[in-house]
Amino acid sequence: MVAKDRIIFALDVGTIDDARTWVDMLAAKVGWFKVGLELFTAAGPSVIELIKESGLKCFLDLKYHDIPNTVSGAVRSATRMKVDMMTIHISGGKSMIQAARSAAADEAGSIGISPPKIIGVSVLTSLNQDDLNDIGINSPVKEQVLNLINLAAESAIDGIVCSPADLAYVRPHIPKGITVITPGIRPAWAATGDQKRIATPKTAIDAGADLLVIGRPISQADDPAEAVDRIVQEIES
Questions:
Q1: 194 pLDDT band (50/70/90 cuts)?
Q2: Which whole-number Å values give the CA distances from 37 to 43, 62, 162, in the listed order?
Q3: Are 73 and 103 contacting, i.e. CB atoms less than 8 angstroms apart?
Q4: In angstroms, rounded to a whole number, what is the distance separating the alpha carbons of residues 41 and 51?
Q5: Please, are residues 148 and 122 in contact by the beta-carbon 8 Å criterion?
Q6: Which of 72, 86, 142, 182 lies in disulfide reach of 60, CB 3.0 to 4.6 Å?
Q7: Does residue 227 surpass a pLDDT of 90?
Q8: Global pTM value
Q9: Are 34 and 9 in contact (CB under 8 A)?
Q10: Is 196 a known active-site residue?
Q11: pLDDT tens-digit profile of 156-192?
Q12: What's the pLDDT at 11?
């Protein structure tokens, strides 16, 4: 895989105009754009159209978590928008995961496109052990991550979002063919921000990540394009 195609730039902005600025700036330098809750709530499907028109792939990161029927409907809608990947919370359970996968395949088949990948989220990278204890989960973070990943693998999920801090522990348990997407990426020269379990691009790739979600180290750099070039160089190393 070409190094730049491993980079998913997080479009963590609040308007379609800001999104267009970043797409225009980085379309030749990254492989994916990620659309999260803030931007999709503000701009809706128009931002998906913007990304697809740029010729790049869209990662819709809305982390669906609801009853299977509701998630199924949301996945069908996202599939019609021709997103390439979308996230669901693994903690929604096996029936919800299977409903999402079936909806993606059925809807894609009905409109003649390849189905988008369904990506499972285990434990958010902003959470540490104290946070899990606060919500009544007493298992160690890594054990909880592994439990959820095993559930997702049993449900034949397409990909996993996994913190870089957990990769070395859980990677051997992730079956071949499942895409591993790692957020919380911070080059050594970038600020940590609010992520508690982070890694550099190189350590994440070495630990088994396939795709890297990177936002603020690029968007807050004095020269964002140069920041991407530095990250690509690190991946290639």
A1: very low
A2: 10, 6, 19
A3: yes
A4: 16
A5: yes
A6: 86
A7: yes
A8: 0.91
A9: yes
A10: no
A11: 999 999 888 788 888 888 998 999 999 888 887 664 5
A12: 97
3-class DSSP state of 149: helix
Long-range contacts of 165-169 (CB under 8 A, 24+ apart): 165/197, 165/198, 165/199, 166/122, 166/123, 166/141, 166/142, 166/197, 167/199, 167/204, 167/207, 167/208, 167/209, 168/207, 168/208, 169/142, 169/145
Select which of 63, 82, 142, 202 is catalytic. Answer: 63
More confident residue, 11 or 166: 11
Longest dimension (CA), the chain: 47
Distance CA 228, CA 237 (A): 14
Residue 16, token pair as written in the block: 């379609």
Phi-psi sector, 104: left (phi>0), alpha (psi -120 to 50), beta: alpha
Distance CA 163, CA 127 (A): 10
Q: Which fold has domain 59-207+216-236?
A: TIM Barrel (3.20.20)
pLDDT digits (tens, 9 = 90+) for 32-70: 999 999 999 999 999 999 999 999 999 999 999 999 999
Q: Where are the alpha helices (DSSP H) in the chain?
A: 16-26, 37-43, 45-53, 68-80, 94-111, 129-134, 141-154, 164-170, 201-206, 216-219, 224-236
Query: In this structure, are residues 166 and 180 in contact, taking their beta carbons and an 8 Å threshold?
Result: no
In the chain, list all ranges with CATH 3.20.20.70.
Answer: 59-207+216-236
List the structure tokens of 216: 């603020």
